[in-house]
Design goal:
Layout lengths: L14 E4 L7 E5 L5 E7 L12 E5 L19 H4 L1
Antiparallel strand pairs: 1-2, 2-3, 3-4
The structure holds zinc ion.
Length: about 80
Amino acid sequence: MRTIALIVALQADSDAVYRWNSKQVANHFCSTCGCDIYADSPAFDINGSWDGKTRKIALNARLLDNFEAADWPVTVIDGKNLW
Ligand SMILES: [Zn+2]
């Protein structure tokens, strides 16, 4: 597994948040262009359990300059049946 460290600067005036259903996942998107920027969610285990405090941040890497999705491993998650 490759790990990278990123510093992402967001403008608060264009950060919009959308939550649905349980409200546990915050989807942050640009209120100007609608791009999905990142999501902040509980760090669920594969069995759906959560320790109640650890968070997971999912960044839309396709917004990064010079990012090539094909260069990275893909993990398929069965979200339909896990949550
Ligand atoms: Zn935008």
